[in-house]
């Protein structure tokens, strides 16, 4: 189960420099968007992911792929290939903010996701002002939607 909140971020308002934190290079495509079936390269790791319907709470299953399987499937992806840098920023309360800086035609979009251990924690979380608009309940900011419609 994935429980996360998502925020738009103005990079000029960040109280830190993302480059001071660990970064992963992510490329992902969607074989299907209803339900979501995604293939992803995360640095040198490859995955096939299923995500159920939902906004803040969704089922998520990740299966490992080989590089060869990923390369075979990527031309079958529907819509744009999403390319982004993900910075892992530790927060208080043992939470981690995943800061996604989108590249190519989705630039200059910057989104932040925070995963929570349970729904109560997610609802109780009070974000700092610099995080910007909470878009958790907007399907427009799901990566699967961005792959089809863009910004």
Task: Report on the architecture of this protein.
With 151 residues, the protein is mostly beta strands. It has one domain (2-149): Hypothetical Protein Pfu-838710-001. 13% of the residues lie in helices and 44% in strands. It is built from 3 helices and 9 strands, in the order ββββββαβββαα. It has helices at 67-73, 119-124, 143-149; strands at residues 2-8, 23-33, 36-42, 45-51, 57-58, 60-65, 78-90, 96-102, 110-115.
Shape: globular
Cα gyration radius (Å): 15 Å
Number of H- or I-type helical stretches: 3
At the fourth level of CATH, the homologous superfamily is Hypothetical Protein Pfu-838710-001
Order of strands across the widest beta sheet?
A: 5-1-9-8-7-2-3-4-6
CATH topology: Hypothetical Protein Pfu-838710-001
Beta-strand proportion: 35-45%
Name of the CATH architecture: Beta Barrel
Helix content: 10-25%
What number is the mean pLDDT?
95
Tally of strands: 9
Largest sheet: 9 strands, antiparallel
Structural class: mainly beta
Low-confidence stretches: none
Question: How would you concisely characterize the structure shown here?
Answer:
This protein is mainly beta and 151 residues long.
Secondary structure layout plus pairing:
Layout: E1 2-8, E2 23-33, E3 36-42, E4 45-51, E5 57-58, E6 60-65, H1 67-73, E7 78-90, E8 96-102, E9 110-115, H2 119-124, H3 143-149
Antiparallel strand pairs: 1-5, 1-9, 2-3, 2-7, 3-4, 4-6, 7-8, 8-9
């Amino acid at each position: 189960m994935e429980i996360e909140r998502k925020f738009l971020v103005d990079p000029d308002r960040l109280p830190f420099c993302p480059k001071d934190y660990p970064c992963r290079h992510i490329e992902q495509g969607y074989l299907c968007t209803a339900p979501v079936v995604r293939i992803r390269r995360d640095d040198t790791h490859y995955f096939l992911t299923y995500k159920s319907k939902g906004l803040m709470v969704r089922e998520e299953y990740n299966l490992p792929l080989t590089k060869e399987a990923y390369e075979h499937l990527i031309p079958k992806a529907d819509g744009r290939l999403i390319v982004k840098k993900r910075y892992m920023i530790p927060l208080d309360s043992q939470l981690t903010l995943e800061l996604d800086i989108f590249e190519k035609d989705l630039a200059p979009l910057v989104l932040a996701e925070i995963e929570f251990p349970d729904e109560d924690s997610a609802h109780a979380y009070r974000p700092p002002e610099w995080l910007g608009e909470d878009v958790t309940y907007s399907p427009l900011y799901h990566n699967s939607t961005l792959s089809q419609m863009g910004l």
